Amino acid sequence: MKKLLFPIVLLLLGNTVNAQQDFFALAGKDSPRIEFSDIRAMNTDGSSGTQIFTSVSQSEVFSQNSRTKVAEDKTSYGNSQAMNLAALATDLSQENLIYMPMFSSNIYVLNQKTKQITLVENGVAKVTSCDINSHITRMTLGYDGAVYALNNAGTQLLQISKKNGQFSVLDLGIVKDAASNGKNSFTAMETGFGGDMISDAEGNLYVFAASGNVFKVSPKNLEAYFLGKISGLPENYSVNGAAVNSKGKIVVASAKGNALFEVNFESLEANQLAGETNLHIYDLASKYFLNDRKAVETTPIINAEIYPTRVDENFIYVNLNQTKIKGNIKVDIFDLSGKNVLSRKISVKDGNLNEKIELSNLSQGAYLVSIFDNSGKVIASKKVLKTK
């Protein structure tokens, strides 16, 4: 269980993505200890794609705080190519990869195009090399566009956000066991440590522990609820990476030299992917979310549509087809705090409408789009995610 390490292992430690490649892996060398090899794109079938960054890549690291080049100590546990890298996430555009060394509070942002690395210094994360509880081992992109990182014991859930070109880090608090978890404790080493994390379209987080146990975590109440254990994995399989692929399925990977598996979230049954069978994967990352295809709608009417829900361009369409609505409608767009960020009044003729609404002035992230009739009644509402 490399990513979790446990005391025995602790003693040993003194390119552009093409259409087929839809998630990323933080890979390690074939070694009895954690030893970072590279960050690579992964194909849908579980085989390796393009290498993006390696342990020997020529890299320039710039401090976000001082905006100057950083002279790194390559023998330290906290440098950008440290052997103990074990947590990885991508932003919505997939242009940047965000990662952390397991024994350090440093956050690194790798630009895939320029290969430039930004060091995000922070005094929020409380990581020490000798405290296994504090090690950041789970990281994922959230539906709100922020990156979430969680340590082994759940004593720190970090939110890494970007605004006006600057990254900031917020400690959301301590994640505790739900009373119903019983022996399947989220905060116990054997049952809840290590692994990785994914998120869904409602803002929930899901931790896949190294043991194969799965927990649902709500950032609102900071409780972890045991959902079950993955079945169908080989004996002693250590779950060290988890991500949602472009099909909406969960993919898990191991640091111990195994194949990747696709997991059905409803049954938690795993089936081996056809790709490579001897990969050492410390973490997985993607821009996809669980249940993303299940649109969030309230009081919809027949033949009223808001699409697409995943906005890769800078516009959405509002479509009304053969409805009884006449006169004006209003389209309001709200951010996740409830602030109205865009409002449009549109005239409907003969109950039909197909209106393109520009979103170029909105930053990437999740929004709620609502259509109101001329009496102020909500006739359709849907959550959309702007990725660029």
From TrEMBL:
Extent of the signal sequence: 1-19
Alphabetic keyword roster: Signal
Domain of life: Bacteria
Domain Secretion system C-terminal sorting: 306-384
Pfam families per record: Por_Secre_tail
Protein name: T9SS type A sorting domain-containing protein
Native source species: Chryseobacterium caseinilyticum
